[in-house]
Specification:
The chain is of the alpha/beta class. Helices cover 48% and strands 11% of the residues. The chain has 2 domains: 162 residues, Rossmann fold (3-Layer(aba) Sandwich), CATH 3.40.50.300; 74 residues, Helicase, Ruva Protein, domain 3 (Orthogonal Bundle), CATH 1.10.8.60.
Length: 271
């Protein structure tokens, strides 16, 4: 345990990047909506789209939801290198499925679909694919995606696919040339930054999950943290980590307004 965390009696920093289970804050309205939508597509496979600004918690939310799925009933395939060519993206999916990736798209599609059908019909495993950073997907990939999702003359939905990305993804999907793919979207959500009350609850949860047994953040410092982060937990996490280090350097075991301001100054962020 580093000396700065020791001074605050913390076992880890609050709001870690790998938050999951007890370290993940699951009480926000946005997460509740996503959880309902996620369960819906687990039970009734289809195409879902989730967008949010950077740092709001898209990936962390899906990581937490996927961790709750029973194995081997479900297989989660996660791909975040979405700026590659469509062929390379399908090859990545093939590798994740244990399929030898062909260099010919037609054969690659056939092999992937055959593997998915076998997985569902023979093994009883439901595949769930998450394409993160989906705003980088090429128009060519998006135009072809509807065809890829067509199983058995479009009579079966074997695959749950989530497109997860920044807000420009939604604008692209609503362009006329993507109308066919848009008609396949079963769920479309946008996650927003936390409001003041929920943000405060998330920070308190993060501190307690990290090991804090008493109040370590002044009310004015909390307000400063909310204003500077605009309710985005990734930004708040960076500020808290820096503030904890600065406070420890000063011999403090409490985060007051001057300490949080110093952290913001070091990070080049305005309050």
């Amino acid at each position: 345990m580093s000396s700065d965390k020791t001074r605050f009696d913390l076992s880890t920093y609050p709001l870690p990047k790998n938050a999951q289970g007890k370290t993940f804050f699951d009480k926000s309205p946005g997460y509740a909506r996503l959880k309902r939508a996620f369960r819906q597509l687990v039970e009734d496979p289809g195409l879902g789209v989730v967008t949010a600004e950077a740092g709001v918690g898209k990936t962390a939310s899906f990581r937490n939801l996927c961790a709750e799925l029973p194995r081997p009933d479900h297989l989660v395939l996660y791909v975040c290198d979405t700026s590659v060519s469509p062929l390379d993206l399908y090859r990545s999916l093939a590798i994740e499925l244990g399929v030898k990736p062909s260099h010919r798209r037609g054969q690659l599609w056939a092999d992937i679909k055959k593997a998915l059908v076998h997985m569902v019909d023979e093994r009883g495993t439901v595949p769930l694919v998450i394409l993160d950073e989906a705003q980088h997907l090429s128009d060519t990939f998006l135009l072809d995606l509807g065809g890829f999702l067509n199983f058995a003359f479009d009579s079966r939905d074997l695959l749950t696919l989530w497109l997860v990305g920044l807000p420009p993804l939604t604008r692209r999907l609503h362009m006329q040339h993507h109308a066919a793919l848009r008609s396949r979207i079963a769920i479309e959500l946008r996650l927003e930054p936390l409001d003041r009350d929920v943000f405060g609850a998330a920070i308190e949860h993060g501190l307690k999950a990290a090991g804090a047994s008493q109040k370590v953040l002044a009310d004015q410092a909390m307000e400063m943290l909310f204003r500077s982060s605009r309710g985005v937990l990734r930004l708040a996490s960076k500020t808290l980590r820096t503030a904890i280090r600065l406070a420890a350097d000063r011999g403090q075991a409490f985060l007051d307004e001057p300490t949080v301001q110093a952290a913001l100054d070091e990070l080049g962020v305005g309050a």
